[in-house]
Amino acid sequence: MLAFQRTFRFADVQLSVRSEGPVSTALSERCHPKLPQGMRIDWCTVATVTLDCVAGARFAVGLTLQPAAEAGWEMDQETGEAFDGTSFCSSNGDVAFVAMRDPDWLANRFALRVVDASQGIAPLTVTYEAAEATSPIIQIAIAETMRPSNEQEALSPCFATDVALDF
Prior knowledge:
Layout: E1 2-7, E2 11-19, E3 27-30, E4 43-50, E5 58-67, E6 74-80, E7 83-89, E8 95-101, H1 103-109, E9 112-117, E10 124-130, E11 137-145, H2 151-164
Antiparallel strand pairs: 1-2, 2-5, 3-4, 4-11, 5-10, 6-7, 7-8, 8-11, 9-10
């Protein structure tokens, strides 16, 4: 199931979920994460998918990012505490970030076991198995700052996506 697909100025972003059990309707919404003074984003979006898993059920999550080459965007993998992300920087200085909770965090939070996980920059693919009946919540957050005027503003999309993701 393609849970979220959208083309942004910097990349085509696709989140897919394959599950043995029911997948609730995916929700995508603009959000306004609280940022420290001096940080700024132009927009932020969070996509959320909730699954209903019985014990032993397996599901796979895939995140594919295709950078917009014609616009001069470069991408790089970033990690933080409990999240994995990809930064996008344009030749004119615009900065965007796509993040999701890392596999270990999701496994611990929702009684899951990581069966298999890809390493490195997107595409990211993780297969989980439910240790017990659970309803895991899979989210991605996406934010952009156009023409940041300083380093703090340039770091804002990364910070905003981390704040926007549920704990």
